[in-house]
Specification:
mainly alpha, 5 helices
Amino acid sequence: MSEEEKKEECPSCEDTQKTSALPQASIIYLVESFFYQTMISLGKQMNPISKKFERDLEIAKFHIGIIEMLQEKTKGNLTPEEAEHINEILHTLRLAYLDEMKRT
């Protein structure tokens, strides 16, 4: 299907894509996505699907590991602000994880 045919099929689709309310893709947005998933797994935030506070420390540890891996793999390629933000996120998550470990 040509671009012209796509426009005829859905003339407003192109405009919708340009004015989307989605945030710009960035390393910070990616890391914050894992941050929120980790906070849900730690039971610190409500699961938006089940509407319950649930705890799964194994999943939380996995998500923290993903952020640590991203930090290591992007070392030297981040702005100082990005690097500091990731450090703060990891610090917060490690403390929250330790807090939850004490409760078991």
